[in-house]
Amino acid sequence: MEKVTFQDVIRTMEPRWVMSSMATWATGILTMIVAGKFNLIWLKYLAGILVFLAMLFFDLFAIFFTIRLFKFPQEVKKDMSHPIFANFFAGIFISAAVIVAGIWNVLVPLNWCHAPEVVSKIFYLIALVLWTIIPVIVPFMLTISENVDPKHAIGIWFLPPVGIFVLVFAGNFMVLHWIW
Predict the structure, then answer these.
(1) Among the listed residues 75, 115, 122, the one whose alpha carbon sits nearest the alpha carbon of residue 99
(2) Half-sphere exposure for 104 (CA within 13 Å, toward CB)
(3) Residue from 93, 96, 87 nearest 25 by CA
(4) What DSSP element (H or E) covers 44?
(5) 53 burial class (0-12, 13-18, 19+ CB within 10 angstroms)?
(6) 153 phi and psi, to 5 degrees?
(7) What local confidence, expressed as pLDDT, does residue 155 receive?
(8) pTM for the full model?
(9) Kind and range of the H or E element at 39?
(10) Which of 24, 63, 128, 180 is least surrounded, with the fewest CB atoms within 10 Å of its CB?
């Protein structure tokens, strides 16, 4: 068996890995809703743990993917030209926006976040900046790619427009707390 190096991990860090962060955040928020409905305090703490795990996943992904972006730009370009992998880039800004919703719906009620305004603004601005870049670059890369075939049209192609709604949804929680 071949030894896997840190270089290999970075080189193969695809954007779809960020989906694990999104799924963990969504599970944390859902767990908090169920805990509130049935008044289960232990479930509220589980929701908080899930949200912190999701933040850890996102931060690790962001660090590894940023390293990949600068160390292996050809691999990133190859992913952006792939008819299916390219659409997962939208998951990056969607995940950053979902973090904002998790902060206000889980961490603030548990009083586990001492600076929710600052943390949520950082993640929201990351989501906003990436939202302005990714939906432009990815379709451009797909347009100039020779790999795109209409047979590759699948539901994931609608992920970038869905991200706009997630961004607005996450912004609602910040507006409700008047942090701008």
Answers:
(1) 122
(2) 21
(3) 96
(4) helix 41-71
(5) middle
(6) -70, 115
(7) 64
(8) 0.81
(9) none
(10) 180
Helix count and strand count (H, E) for the chain: 8, 0
CB contact at 8 A, 68 and 75: yes
CA–CA gap between residue 44 and residue 76 (Å, rounded): 38
Residues 6+ away with beta carbon under 8 Å from 61: 13, 17, 18, 20, 21
Contacts (Cβ under 8 Å, ≥6 apart) of 151? none
Tokens 């659409």: give the residue.
87
Please classify residue 72 by burial: count the beta carbons closer than 10 Å to its beta carbon, then call 0-12 exposed, 13-18 middle and 19+ buried. Answer: middle
Read off the pLDDT of residues 3-38 as tens digits, 9 standing for 90 and up: 989 999 999 888 888 888 888 988 999 999 999 999
